[in-house]
Amino acid sequence: MARFRISLNMEFCRSADKSFEGGVKIASELGYHYIEPMVHTGWELLSEVHYFHSFSMEEDPLLMKEICNRHGLKVSSLSAHSPLMKPEAAIDRLTRAVVQAGAVGCDFLNSDEMVKPDWMDDDFAHDTMRYTLTRMAQVCARHHKYLCIEPHGVFTKTAAGLLRIVNLVDSPWIQVNWDTGNSYLAGIEDPYDGLTLVRDRVYHIHAKDISMQHSEAERGKVTGTPVGCACGEGMVDWERVGAIMEPVDRDIFLSVECGQIDEAERSLAFLKKTMGKWLVE
Fold first, then answer.
1. Confidence of residue 84 (pLDDT cuts 50, 70, 90)
2. Which structural domain, as residue segments, surrounds residue 226?
3. Degrees, nearest 5: CA angle 82-105-248
4. Distances in whole angstroms, Cα of residue 267 to Cα of each of 22, 77, 121, 273
5. Sequence-distant contacts of 190-196: CB under 8 A, at least 24 apart
């Protein structure tokens, strides 16, 4: 049976202009035990002045662990979104994220295909992604880390398109991060049918709910969104998600992706109540 652990994607404090440590402190105070930090290369201006939560991989990798330890939290996964169709950027960024994951003791990196250049046709795009993922599968195998691809872009807006990408390379280290909100918002197929199709490859879940207002405004018009509303206050049927994943025998993080601190608090209470029979500490 699937066993879920609740985590919190650090995007919850983006609109509050909090630093990485400021967001970690709040997550701990809300009652979370795990977080999913966003990582970047270089020295990002807003992060440097403590107005943004993303963590620079130019820092000592153990600094992230030190900060989390200070507030009693563990890292569940890293939000390491990188353009798979741009290997000169993605391979370096994801390789450094694998090293960062090792330093903090987590096993999962999350990404999507990101933006397809206008000058690339679909075959060229998939050949390029095959190169990127082949290189990353080798890195992930050395470090025993999973690179999980989520539905968010032009190819991954369907479950079949998502599976085509994760199957470009025959590797147990390339898997799926199912995003409940993005799959719903794409509006192309039933998101529960999509989850059923990919569930054997799902190693991580972005717990993102979509409000009715958001659904009415954008469903079928976009392939994803940065954050959703509080879990339980939108269109996602969470018990159905749990039931679909129940036959999968592994621990899976439910990483809450919302945009406000109060939404993170309500999401935790809702998931504890609704997903309780599948939860482990």
1. very high
2. 3-278
3. 80
4. 19, 18, 40, 10
5. 191/236, 192/237, 192/240, 192/241, 192/244, 193/159, 194/151, 194/158, 194/159, 194/162, 195/159, 195/241, 195/244, 195/245, 196/244
Mind listing the pLDDT tens digit for each residue in 204-256? 999 999 999 999 999 999 999 999 999 999 999 999 999 999 999 999 999 99
How many whole angstroms separate alpha carbon 148 and alpha carbon 175? 5
Beta bridge partners of 178: 205
- Per the structure, the count of domains in the chain is 1
- CA 96 – CA 107 distance, rounded (Å): 14
pLDDT per position as a tens digit, 95-121:
999 999 999 999 999 999 999 999 999
Which candidate, 215, 148, 221, places its Cα nearest to that of 188?
221
Measured at the CA of 268, the angle between CA 264 and CA 271, to 5 degrees, comes to 130
Say whether 24 sits in a helix, a strand or coil. Answer: helix
**Residues near 19 by Cβ (< 8 Å), separated by ≥ 6?**
47, 50, 51, 52, 53
DSSP string, 128-149: HHHHHHHHHHHHHHHHT-EEEE
Q: Are 174 and 166 in contact (CB under 8 A)?
A: yes
Q: Where are the alpha helices (DSSP H) in 120-259?
A: 122-143, 159-166, 180-186, 191-198, 212-218, 238-245
- Domain CATH for 183: 3.20.20.150
Whether pTM exceeds 0.85: yes
Is 97 within 8 Å of 109 (Cβ atoms)? Answer: yes
Measured CA to CA, the distance from residue 33 to residue 48 in angstroms comes to 26
